Amino acid sequence: MPRPDPADARLDGLRRRLKGLAYGGDYNPEQWPAATWREDVSLMREAGVNLVTVGVWSWGQLEPRPGHYEFGWLDEVMDLLAEAGVGVDLATPTAAPPSWLAHEQPETLPVDGEGRRIAFGSRCQYCQSSPVFRYHAARITERLAERYAGHPALAMWHIGNEYGGFGCHCPASVAHFRRWLADRYSTVDALNEAWGTAFWGQRYDSFDHIGTPAPRSRLISGPNPGQLLDFQRFCDAAALECYIAERDIVRRHSPELPITTNFMGSFKHLDYWRWAAEEDVVSLDIYAGPLDPDGPALAAYNFDLMRSLRGGKPWLMLESATGNNLTDGRNYARPAGQLRVRSLQAVARGADSVMFFQWRASRAGAERYHSAMVPHGGTRTRTWREVTALGRDVARLGEVAGDANDQADVAIVWDWENWWAVEGPDHPSNDLRLSDRLMDHYRPLWDANIAVDFVGPRDELGGYRLLVVPNLYLVDDVGADNLTAYVRAGGHLLMSYFSGIVDEFDRVRPGGHPGAFRDLLGIDIDDFSPLPPGDSRSLHYAGYSGTATDWQDIIDLVGAEPLATYTDGELKGGSAATRHRLGNGTATYLGTSPDRETLRRLLLDIVGDAGVAPVLDTPQGVEAVRRGAYLFLLNHTADEATVDLGALPHQAVDLLGADTQPAVTDGLHLPPFGVAVLHDTPGVES
Ligand code: GLA
């Protein structure tokens, strides 16, 4: 029997308090006079807001001078919110240290790879290894936690903000890196072995001789890949230490409340598998561009990743944008009506909240043109009308809160250490971007309404019918054996090029490529043959003529059969894709990056072979997702759509329908950007 997870009870408590899904956003009252707070609270009630994230950027206001605290304004805000029944996700304000800390203790400021200290004037300007920063961060956290524990508005805790894990090169960081390496390797000889320092005579005699990796611009030739990879691991670990230190302080004061820190989805620098294990609930900030045609697929990909990080449990969407977000050179308005479908898409994929950055648009500061729930034009705006309507929809979906999405039949392998290694320098091609490649494999599944989870290479895989493994360059023996055993036991697997090449220290596996997966795939790779940028080759797959770009493996078959073949170029007649039966399962290998249509066909053929069915067949641009007993139908297009529900076993009721909640029996009409949430009515056969 698995041990009960104490996080579950904390989240039950939150759900009871919210009476359903959370609705709200980041609230930064310190930017406004007290009179505005009263208006805020009344507008929050009007919009159906029940949870706000407070205090993320308020260290400078809470502790304007070292050791001098001004909590009066926050007391008043917390009291106002409590009276209005709005819960607070209270943030430790440590993502933006105050100016006095930078001024009086400049050693807390980070140093870049060129040795330059970053000046105060933005946010996140701290060295995560600095004992001085950590001391001050712990002190403000302690004061905040002791003061507000038990406050009637306090619903949960939010630690820092969007930890970045970016490397610092100051003396404190170098010393910390050395300690971390000594812990990891015990002896410097073990480190020499792992980093392969016999190459270029880089052997170390003491941990004290090791520095942080120099930037490439300062090097005469390439850096040591083992050192780079370990520095990435170290930066992640140092950031996690900062989070854990604050979490533990808060936990002492509020043991009954959930604690989170907001993630950035497919963000490279932090190993969110490890982070999620230290949280009560995973939470996400998502900013998929309103006009990006890939926006809904990208959002779904991030949502599925968040849900997967804690084994499918509900998660929180803590930030999104009501309209434009400031990420591009041009920041586009959201088309009228799109807000609803983009927001409820998160709920479909397991979110127990719809929340935004931010409640009220700022008058000043870098993000004054970022959209908000209350825009500069206030309640006269279309955004406000859509925000209040969305609040009503979120309330109607209250019964969904806490329900988990079922485990999917398909899983995609996601591993951060591999990400760090595969995008390291001095590879046969340095153009591979893992997140793009993962998305290439996810997109056709999303388009076809095939539910997907993400898993680590060492996870329990038995429940999945199909495992998709894009570019798993770095894998340890445990992970490699796990994937091989999965196929032997009857699983279907699709792996793509540059996989199984190195061990966990980024050392090439002996005996030729694809090292860890030669037996699994039944192939030898004679050589890697990247294609020049913009160049392509033709290939033939199951009656379809497609193209290959970026990369070609020169494949020798040693047990596998050819599945796709090059039809021109030097490798004409050679295999672009192969299939190998191993034990009771099948391993398919893709030795190139094919065009979208070829990949779609190949993937969906394997989906069919694996016996995986879509949630529902829907028109292009209409997404179907099942969350427990609820079927979400989301029209991401600006056109009307009709969905054929013929295959559904039961009559269903649309939770978002008219007050009478008419039963939906066959064709379901969705207006532009329309959403329906159907609840099975068991026992009523259609
Ligand atoms: C992030 C941050 C917010 C805000 C938004 C919008 O998610 O957490 O503070 O900066 O981006 O840009």
What can you see in these coordinates?
The protein is of the alpha/beta class and 686 residues long. It has 4 domains: 1-49 and 285-401, Alpha-Beta Barrel (TIM Barrel), CATH 3.20.20.80; 50-281, Glycosidases (TIM Barrel, Alpha-Beta Barrel), CATH 3.20.20.80; 410-609, Class I glutamine amidotransferase (GATase) domain (Rossmann fold, 3-Layer(aba) Sandwich), CATH 3.40.50.880; 622-680, Golgi alpha-mannosidase II (Immunoglobulin-like), CATH 2.60.40.1180. The chain has 18 helices and 27 strands. The protein starts with 5 loop residues before the first helix and ends with a strand. 49% of the residues are buried. Bound molecules: alpha-D-galactopyranose.
Secondary structure elements and pairings:
Elements: H1 6-18, E1 22-27, H2 34-47, E2 51-54, H3 59-62, H4 72-83, E3 87-91, H5 99-104, H6 131-148, E4 154-158, H7 171-185, H8 188-195, H9 225-253, E5 259-260, E6 262-263, H10 272-276, E7 283-285, H11 295-309, E8 316-319, H12 338-348, E9 353-356, H13 382-396, E10 410-413, H14 416-422, H15 434-447, E11 452-455, E12 466-469, H16 477-488, E13 492-496, H17 518-521, E14 523-528, E15 536-541, E16 544-557, E17 561-566, E18 575-582, E19 585-590, E20 592-594, H18 596-609, E21 622-627, E22 630-635, E23 641-644, E24 650-654, E25 663-664, E26 667-670, E27 675-685
Parallel strand pairs: 1-2, 1-9, 2-3, 3-4, 4-5, 6-7, 7-8, 10-11, 10-12, 12-13, 13-19
Antiparallel strand pairs: 14-16, 15-16, 15-17, 16-20, 17-18, 18-19, 21-22, 22-27, 23-26, 24-25, 24-27
Bound molecules: alpha-D-galactopyranose.
Alpha-D-galactopyranose binds next to loops.
